[in-house]
Design brief:
heterodimer; A: mainly alpha; Cytochrome Bc1 Complex, Chain D, domain 2; 2 domains; three-stranded mixed beta sheet; 13 helices; 47% helix; globular; B: mainly beta; Immunoglobulin-like; four-stranded antiparallel beta sheet; three-stranded antiparallel beta sheet; 0% helix; elongated
């Protein structure tokens, strides 16, 4: 009898496992915007009350400001942000031929600062970098996330998927266990979102500040009591690559407000 | 230099109309109660006072305290009297001061 029970249990486990490994089906996908309360939605919808738009305004000023004497501003090369940056945030991270690895939007801005503007790169999560990120992300508002089909990114994306399914920290939880299997349920009084990166950089109420996707990911890692990956680390960019593919086709709503 | 925004309704405003004015300013509103990872105090850095001047008088003012959120947003109503500047003045810790002005167009 006992072996039979074990076999039945094993059979059940195998039947359930592939389901767990699967992503959320397209018709069940909900962005963080759709899962939050009406008051926060209203705050995001109105550009005046959305605090992340203050960051965009700062970004607009930075866009045309020369970083140093004799150096070109962003506008000097990219001209009007509304035309040159349309859809850019929706297709990052991209492949950087120079370093032969994937690069995210913040990394690309930093690269421009050091290599082309000849200034020191603004650190990640600094107000200056977030302002430029928010300005560029705004130019993709309403556009579908278009994960790059570049075959050179395939390996990194697969590593990102593996990280998404890997258990971390003292709580021994993977991203997938919360965001694929238990989304919509309560966790400490808040609803677990599906983890779609549609709105970054976001103004998060809990932070009382604008922050990037990497800050959010590091936050989650700290939450499961793991040592978070360093800002700008390849692992975080690989997770972002996978997340963008996982959410491909969803509309961008950056810069968003989240609880 | 702070970033601030003042919103006056774009619709036609007539003399005597009740108008909703809105203002938002980028400010961390650091409470002074938080500590760093190593236990050091994060000093308080908040806006202490906001006032709004229109048509030669102060039409609104209030004091802020440490529990006000970052990037404080204000909305209140006033009565339109004549075309002129609406000035918001935010003052706070560390000598913070920012003035943002918008013009209210009033038709008779």
């Amino acid at each position: 009898m006992r072996p039979l029970v074990s076999i039945v249990m094993l059979g059940l486990a195998m039947a359930v496992l592939p389901l767990h490994a699967q992503d959320i089906p397209a018709h069940d996908r909900l962005s963080g915007f759709e899962m939050m309360g009406a008051d926060v939605q209203a705050m995001q919808r109105d550009d005046f009350s959305n605090p992340a738009m203050l960051s965009v305004r700062e970004g607009e000023q930075l866009w045309s400001r020369a970083p140093a004497q004799g150096k070109k501003s962003c506008q000097g090369c990219h001209h009007d942000v509304a035309t040159s940056m349309t859809g850019v945030a929706a297709r990052y991270p991209a492949f950087d031929a120079g370093s032969n690895r994937p690069i995210d939007l913040a990394g690309r801005i930093q690269q421009c600062q050091t290599e082309r503007q000849g200034v020191q790169a603004a650190p990640r999560e600094s107000a200056l970098l977030l302002a430029l990120q928010a300005l560029v992300a705004l130019q993709s508002r309403g556009m579908p996330i278009a994960a790059t089909a570049d075959p050179r990114l395939a390996a990194a994306r697969e590593r990102g998927q593996a990280l998404f399914n890997q258990r971390f920290g003292q709580l021994n939880l993977s991203c997938a266990q919360c965001h694929n299997q238990n989304w919509g349920k309560s966790l400490g009084g808040t609803r677990i979102p599906q983890g779609h990166p549609t709105g970054y950089p976001i103004f998060r109420m809990e932070w009382q500040a604008v922050g990037s996707l990497q800050r959010r990911l590091r936050n989650c890692l700290t939450g499961v009591r793991a040592e978070p990956f360093a800002p700008g680390s390849p692992e975080l960019i690989e997770i972002e690559l996978y997340l963008m593919q996982r959410s491909a086709g969803m509309a961008m709503d950056a810069p968003a407000v989240r609880p | 230099m702070a970033t601030a925004n003042v919103l006056i309704p774009r619709s036609v405003i007539r003399k005597g109309d009740i108008v909703t004015l809105k203002a938002i300013i980028a400010h961390p509103m650091e409470t002074g109660f938080r500590r760093t990872e190593t236990g050091g105090e994060i000093p308080r850095n908040i806006i202490r006072h906001v006032s709004c001047h229109y048509d030669g008088v102060e039409v609104f003012s209030c004091d802020f305290h440490p529990s006000i959120s970052a990037n404080p947003f204000l909305a209140f109503t006033t009565i339109a009297t004549k075309t002129g500047p609406v000035s918001f003045i935010w003052t706070g810790d560390n000598g913070f001061r920012h003035v943002e002005t918008a013009i209210m167009n009033v038709t008779d």
